[in-house]
Design goal:
- The protein has 129 residues and is α/β, with parallel strands linked by helices.
- It has one domain: Rossmann fold.
- It is 37% helix and 16% strand.
- The protein is built from 6 helices and 5 strands, in the order E-E-H-E-H-H-E-H-E-H-H.
- The protein has a 5-stranded mixed sheet.
- Strand 2, helix 1 and strand 3 form a beta-alpha-beta unit.
- The termini are far apart.
Length: 129
């Protein structure tokens, strides 16, 4: 966590898209990365536990993790999407929670908000088209 963000999993080829999560979402992103690979979409998975620490890094490090030339990005945040637009660009998207008040078992609530492998894959594919 020292640098705020790091590449957790790199595809075998040049990435087509970057999937970004902060913590609990990372396992979901890794599973989605595998599903995307099966559909010939190369996804880099970035773990970004701290925006503040990431912002303190030099430009070269930030460019290595989230290259400016790779604008297809999907952030998955099991919380508010506020602030993520800076990292996903106008060619990216965010899966987040912008409302409150759901009550059900955790798995059902997360699925209702779109925190499923299938939804991450669907959103990533939509960004690629």
């Amino acid at each position: 966590m020292e640098k705020g963000a790091y590449i957790l999993s790199e595809p075998e080829t040049q990435p087509d898209i970057i999937l970004i999560g902060t913590g609990s979402e990372v396992q979901l992103l890794l599973a989605a990365q595998q599903k995307l690979k099966e559909q010939n979409i190369a996804a880099r998975v970035v773990s970004m536990p701290s925006w503040e620490l990431f912002e303190k890094q030099d430009k070269a490090y930030k460019e290595k993790i989230i290259p400016g030339s790779l604008r297809k990005r999907l952030a998955v945040e099991a919380g508010s999407p506020l602030g993520w637009h800076k990292y996903v660009t106008d060619e990216g998207d965010i899966i987040g929670i912008a409302r409150f008040g759901e009550s059900a078992p955790a798995e059902e609530v997360m699925a209702a908000y779109g925190f499923t492998v299938e939804n991450v894959v669907k959103k990533a594919k939509a960004l690629m088209s």
